Structures are given as C-alpha cells and as structure tokens.
C-alpha cells in the first residue's frame, strides 16, 4: 500500500492507492535474506572459540511501512491502482432456495480494511523483519489491529484472552510536531504497549519545542527501572521543501538532551530546509537568523553542531532470541494491566489542563 507523489489525491475526498503485487512480494524476499543472515550469525556464535573471536550482535532489517500513508486511517473511499483504476476483490457466496443451490463469486470494492488484513498477514509471514508502523491516529490502532495472529480465522478483540495480540516484529509510532500534539497523542500511544516491543515518536517535522515528561521516556512512574514498554525511540527533524517551516536548533537540542538523560535512543534525521539558531531567548526569527546549509534538506550531519549528531536505534531490533521475545511480551502485558487506571488517566488529565490553559 502506498500513496506516492502524483499518484493520488490527498484529503477526505481524494483517493488511496495500493502498490503492485510485485511490490508486496519484496518483503518476502527480504525475509528470506534476513533468515539466511541470521543463520550465518548463529553459526558464527556457535563456532567462536574464545572471547577474542568477537561477533557483532545481530540486527534485524527494518521496514518503514507505507511512509507516505497511514494504515490506521478511517478511510471508506475507493482504493485504486497505479493507473487510478478502482480495485475490487472477489468474495465467494452461496445461495440455496427450494428449487436450486447457486454458488459463485461477487466483486466488492477493495477497502482499507482489506489492505490492513493483507499487511498484517505479510508481517506475520516475515518474522525476520522489524516493521515500523507510523500513524497520526494512535487512537484507532487497537480497534484496527489484526487479532488473527496464530489463528485459522479472524476473531474479534472481545472473544477472550486466547488471542495473541503481541507482535515481536512490529514497532508502533505516532507523529508529533509540538507540545500540543505530543500531549494529545502520546497518552494514546502509551495505551498500545501490549501490542509490540517498541513504541516510538516521530517528531518530524518538528515545529516547536517539546518537553517529554520523564514518564514518557523509558521510566515507569511506579519504578526507577527502565522499560521498553514506554517510549523506546524518538526520531526528529526539521521540515524540508520550498514551503518548509522553520526549525530551531534549540528544539532539536532539547529533545536530544531529554533522550540522553532518560537513556532513550534518539535519531536526528535532518535539520530541515529553514534551520535557524535562536539567540534571543525566545522563538523569534527573521531572514537574517537562518542558518545556511549546503544540503537542501539539512540532512548532512557534518553541517550540524557536534552535540546533535545523534543517530541511535533501539536495542529491540536484536530481539531474535525467543526467550527475549517472551520476556518483552510479559513486560509490556504487565505494564498494560498496571497502567490503565493510573498513568493513562494521569497523562490525559494533564493534556486537558494544558488545553484549558491551566498548565503550561
């Protein structure tokens, strides 16, 4: 599934596009290659003769899924192909009357639910890949999550605890751009910690200062121990393009420092096309304060101050040991039970106070 430049129309009255079957088959190839690499790594580990035969930790390949789409969107419009043609699916049917019985297939328009079902099936077929699913609608994720894992047929969320909702090869992220969006969406994202080992934020484009509460960044409010059940990764960067909005160095620097203090990996992608360094103590800027960079997107770390040249990844991309996966699953499920009545309510109340202007 993809929304590519000039292929679709954006907005509520636009279109959504499904990429070709060949494109959907690529992850199967990547998974086979990753499986072979993992076997080679296991062989290297087993044949290491001493501590001097060092073997680098194995890292799963990452797939940033539908980077220009949102698979958790409430979309009820048409799904089209690369030519703009509406896509359909065939649904088997049978009809029995007193005189005869009829079977066959009917064509139904392809839906976003069909694409999600296909995507989750592909994710479950590729356990050697880590899938990064980014959304602007974290409140939709649990309702749209696929609950058929390890089942022969689809079942609903309400059919009991025998459903294995945890996927060890999925990272869930949501987009934030400033303090109001962070206060609105981070509490929704934190409700999903029982679904996967990594929750992450994408602060790109970064349009304002963000202060992430210590409870958001890897420290449970009831414990001093770090956990992969809270925010486990932060991606950030300025906006690029001819109409890019400014990005203040202090905004990036602040997030880098917050992540460092909480021991949360941080990945600075770019400074953006209109970077500026604020020396006024506020957030004012004009044409004379913009920082000139050679790279049009500000994505060359060599042009940045040394302290923001940070590109880190979560350790969870090394979760290839079944025991480690089970431990992570037990941890996040436990967090989900303990947290519902306390932390989520606490952060939601904070967001409501900020919205009413009672708290800065």
3D structure, described in words:
This protein has a 6-stranded parallel beta sheet. The protein has a two-stranded parallel sheet with strand order 1-3. It has one domain (16-82, 111-355). It is 28% helix and 17% strand. The longest helix has 27 residues, at 21-47. By secondary structure, it is α/β, with parallel strands linked by helices.
Low-confidence stretches: 1-5, 93-104, 151-162, 219-229, 319-325, 331-348
Rg: 23 Å
Number of helical segments?
7
Percent helix, as a range, is 25-40%
Structural class: alpha/beta
| Overall outline | globular
- Sheet with the most strands, sense and barrel status: 6 strands, parallel
What number of structural domains do the residues give?
1
Average pLDDT score: 76
Total strands: the figure is 12
Tell me the distance between the termini. 40 Å
Strand portion, in percent?
Answer: 15-25%
Widest sheet: strand order? 2-6-7-8-9-11
* Secondary-structure element pattern, one letter each: EHEEEEHEHEHEEEHEEHH
Essential attributes:
360 residues, 17% strand, two-stranded parallel sheet, alpha/beta, 6-stranded parallel β-sheet
Short description:
The chain is α/β, with parallel strands linked by helices and 360 residues long.
Task: Break the fold down into its secondary structure elements and pairings.
Blueprint: E1 16-17, H1 21-47, E2 62-65, E3 79-80, E4 88-96, E5 101-109, H2 112-125, E6 130-135, H3 141-144, E7 170-175, H4 179-190, E8 198-203, E9 231-237, E10 247-248, H5 249-262, E11 266-270, E12 275-276, H6 322-339, H7 343-355
Parallel strand pairs: 1-3, 2-6, 6-7, 7-8, 8-9, 9-11, 10-12
Antiparallel strand pairs: 4-5
Helix pairs in contact: 4-7
């Amino acid at each position: 599934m993809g929304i590519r430049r000039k292929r679709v129309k954006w907005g509520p009255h636009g279109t959504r596009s499904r990429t070709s079957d060949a494109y959907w088959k690529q992850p199967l190839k990547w998974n086979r290659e990753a499986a072979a690499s993992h076997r080679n790594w296991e062989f290297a580990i087993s044949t290491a003769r001493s501590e001097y035969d060092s073997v680098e930790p194995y890292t799963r390949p990452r797939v940033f899924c539908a980077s220009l789409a949102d698979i958790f969107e409430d979309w009820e419009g048409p799904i089209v192909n690369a030519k703009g043609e509406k896509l359909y699916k065939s649904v088997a049917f049978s009809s029995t009357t007193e005189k005869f019985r009829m079977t066959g297939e009917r064509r139904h328009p392809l839906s976003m639910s069909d694409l999600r079902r296909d995507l989750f099936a592909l994710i479950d077929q590729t356990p050697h890949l880590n899938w990064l699913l980014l959304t602007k609608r974290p409140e939709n994720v649990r309702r749209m999550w696929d609950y058929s894992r390890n089942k022969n047929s689809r079942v609903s969320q309400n059919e009991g605890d025998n459903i294995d909702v945890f996927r060890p090869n999925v990272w869930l992220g949501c987009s934030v751009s400033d303090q109001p969006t962070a206060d609105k969406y981070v509490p929704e994202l934190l409700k999903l910690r029982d679904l996967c080992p990594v929750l992450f934020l994408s602060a790109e484009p970064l349009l304002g200062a963000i202060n992430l509460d210590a409870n958001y960044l890897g420290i449970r409010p009831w414990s001093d121990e770090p956990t992969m059940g809270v925010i486990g990764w932060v991606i950030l960067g300025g906006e690029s393009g001819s109409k890019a909005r400014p990005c203040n160095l202090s905004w990036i620097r602040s997030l880098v420092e917050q992540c460092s203090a909480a021991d949360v990996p941080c990945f600075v992608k770019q400074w953006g096309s209109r970077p500026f360094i604020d020396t006024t103590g506020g957030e004012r800027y004009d044409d004379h304060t913009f920082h000139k960079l050679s790279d049009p997107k500000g994505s060359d770390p060599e042009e940045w101050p040394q302290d923001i040249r940070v590109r880190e990844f979560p350790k969870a991309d090394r979760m290839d040991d079944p025991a480690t996966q089970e431990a992570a699953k037990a941890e996040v499920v436990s967090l989900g039970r303990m947290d519902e009545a306390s932390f989520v309510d606490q952060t939601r109340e904070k967001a409501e106070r900020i919205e009413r202007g009672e708290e800065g």
